[in-house]
Amino acid sequence: MKFVDEYRSGEAATAYAEALHDISTSDWTIMEVCGGQTHAIVRFGIDRLLPGCITLVHGPGCPVCVTPVSLIDKAIEIAASPGAVLCSFGDMLRVPGSSRDLFSARAEGGDVRTVYSPMDALDIARQEPESRVVFFAVGFETTAPVTAAAVLTARREKLLNFSLLVAHVRVPPAMEAVLSSPDNRVQGFLAAGHVCTVMGYGEYGPIASRFGVPIVVTGFEPLDILQGIHMCVLQLEKGVAGVENQYGRAVRPEGNPAARALMDRAFVTVDRAWRGLGGIPRSGLGLRPELSGFDAEEHFGKARAELDDVTAGSCLSGLVLRGAIQPADCPSFGRACTPEHPLGAPMVSSEGACAAYYRYGRNREEEHD
After folding, report:
1. CA 195/CA 212 separation, integer angstroms
2. Going by C-beta distance under 8 Å and a sequence separation of 6 or more, which residues neighbour residue 248?
3. 362 vs 348: CA distance, rounded Å
């Protein structure tokens, strides 16, 4: 526990907070792009240690939250197909599609099974050769290597009853989309350390240069985040914009070459729709043409790409996902929208910003006191 205690040291946190008060002379808005970082910020009150001129906003850092309605509807359709088994991570089951979710599909008789890895879905395909087993592949670059390993294993073993409904997304293009938005207010980024562990951070330099924003690769413990904010603010105060790596104990510039090679064998870069952000060029991963036999959309039909993001009533989850507002600014937050009755995806996922604010009691009144 020594390592964890060190990175949660109250004295060190106070020292970083005091340093931020000392160096901050202007108003700065910084976005973290990782749901794990969002939960750490809210859980440990990191934002409340900062000087009032520093605002933290929460980006599209939850892959479950940004999975488009069209793919959720396709997963529901597959689950209802005779002989099909739809395998998914548990937090996808309550994400709303255009009219219902995967829990509803299962209640209506669809074969929806919760798994912890695509390898679990492979095992089901081996054990039930008469079933058409589909794994709903959701996640950032962090989880894509395991999905790649699963589909390459299926090809090697000729498990033709196994396929993927691919919803993997790439973080750097989403950061560019946020910065290009007319309502953007982000001046610096804390980049997701787990993504960079796999991919490295070579893609971030051009973004920092093009948009003039500092980007700091950051870990997940409280002191990681405070140090990342400190590094970002130092750049902002100096008027420079480059890429720095706070998470050096885990991240190398080149990332994980073996994992990246595995992804390259299975995937190509494709355009992808993001819930709350719309279509983003080259922001997704799709199966290579030679693996099309393992593409669920080849077997069950393409997802309806024309479907728009769906929100219910006054839900403003799209604005939350691109950092335009805080969760507590949504009129539905904590009222019509709760974890028991979510209106938007960020209230569903364990990594969603709205779920974090609700769990740790960040209600509208507190935020505006």
Report:
1. 22
2. none
3. 16
| Cα(226)–Cα(234) distance, integer angstroms | 12
Residue tagged 């509807």 (tokens): 73
Give the homologous superfamily in CATH for domain 66-170+256-300.
Answer: HypD, alpha/beta domain 2 (3.40.50.11740)
Query: What pLDDT digit, counting tens, does each position of 250-294 carry?
Result: 999 999 999 999 999 999 999 999 988 889 999 999 999 999 999
pTM of the model: 0.91
Domain ranges of the chain: 2-63+172-245, 66-170+256-300
* Of 98, 140, 61, residue with least CA distance to 327: 61
Please, are residues 302 and 334 in contact by the beta-carbon 8 Å criterion? no
Q: What is the CATH number of domain 2-63+172-245?
A: 3.40.50.11750
At 231, list the tokens.
Answer: 């590094």
Tokens 């929460």, residue located: 58
Residue pair 76/110 in contact by the 8 Å Cβ criterion: yes
- For the segment 200-247, what is each residue's pLDDT rounded down to a tens digit? 999 999 999 999 999 999 999 999 999 999 999 999 999 999 999 999
